[in-house]
Amino acid sequence: MSENKTVNVNDRSYPWPTSPLVVVCVDGSEPGYESSDHGGYIERAIEAGVMPFLASVKDSATFTTANCVIPSFTNPNNLSIVTGRPPAVHGICGNFYYDSDSDTEVMMNDPDLLRVPTIFKAFEDAGGRVAVITAKDKLRRLLGKGLSIKASESVCFSAEKADGLTLEEHGVTEMIERLGMPLPDVYSAELSEFVFAAGVELMNTMRPDLMYLSTTDYIQHKHAPGTPVANAFYAMMDRYLAALDAAGAVVAVTADHGMKGKTDANGEPNVIYLDPLIADLGVVGARVILPITDPYVVHHGALGGFATVYLPDDVSVEALAESISQHPGVEVVLDKATACKQLELPADRIGDLVVISRFDHVLGSAPDKHDLSGLTDPLRSHGGFSEQRVPMIVNRVARNIPDNLRNFDIFSFALNSLEAA
To answer: Which domain holds residue 27?
Structure first.
């Protein structure tokens, strides 16, 4: 493939990579902040001496931060990263949404819900080799939409379902045997390690033009930056990043969202339950949707920093928004039009109100609708503005770094803004 070729998709242009490009989305990887003494996962691990590769390349790499999309959840941000566009364009505005046409609450993992092609499909259509590896299968079908697995050299699979790979559906088989690793539990650090190990294996054998590795935030939900378990996770990641770098790849690391502690002084979750709150304000028949909801809620109990509310026609949206916004722990309440404009969300998949909690609170529907029995550690979660900042790291020096970087700029940034190796 000519190095002068350019791929155009979703009104953005991507030069053909001169070296394999690996984009890594480290789920929940809270970054450090220059304006405070708050150290993120990567910063704390480097300080502890357990990420020697990233420590060694700091002077010959790009270390900065970017903003993710709001809601700061997994699905909207992964799909923004792989389309290069915000949810208003690609349509995926949560892990879960309310389909008003069918009056049903739906998981946002059906590829038909994605409204634009991915960068992967565009490169595959141009003759490129693409490899997509996710931790959880909920993302795999969305990220792989449009890929012609049977008719191409593309690979797309999840670590969660690595024991059932077929050439026809996934483009690869026997990954468990090739890696010498057992099928990992979905609630484990090993699920993410499988993603990295498979990425290195395919880089050394398939050598794709584009690779995307997406991990799980199980560790980040349970362990704060700098803790022994968190440092062990990032030490593992560092070894695989070093291997990808040694294989000659451009390695670009970002996250779908950050992560914050959401507990009070006693270690109990700071939850604002919106169903009883709205009922106490005299509104009957409201529907609260929590877009963090997915099949894997053990480590967060479906409690996050973003909710959308559908209201009966006779309710004053403005008055209710004002009343909810006065509740301690609520950061902001936006009407639909304002939320869609400011946050770049699809209007047909958002309720009449958007509620976003403060950095130390989460939103729920009602106490009896949340199973918190799996929260064996103090609650850490995400969804609001407080988890918007994410890392942006590339193992090359950038010519210039825009002030308004978004995590979904990472493919363009890595292909357009780096100095020659």
So the answer is: 6-259+383-416
Strand 6-9 vs strand 62-67: parallel, antiparallel, or unpaired? unpaired
Within 138-232, strands assigned E span 155-158, 210-214
DSSP helix/strand/coil, 342: helix
Question: What pTM does this model have?
Answer: 0.95
What CATH number is given to the structural domain containing 316? Answer: 3.30.1360.110
Query: How far is C-alpha 306 from the chain's CA centre?
Result: 15
Q: How far is CA 338 from CA 179, 223, 245, 343, 406, in A?
A: 49, 35, 43, 8, 20
Residue 15's SS3 state is: strand
Burial string for 34-49 (b: 16+ CB within 10 Å, else e) reads eeeeebbbbbbbbeee
Q: What would the pLDDT profile of 315-349 be if each residue is shown by its tens digit?
A: 999 999 999 999 999 999 999 999 999 999 999 99
Q: DSSP character for 249?
A: -
Cα gap 309→287, rounded to integer Å: 6
At 228, give phi and psi (nearest 5°): -55, -45
Q: What is the pLDDT of residues 392-416, one digit of tens each?
A: 999 999 988 888 999 999 999 999 9
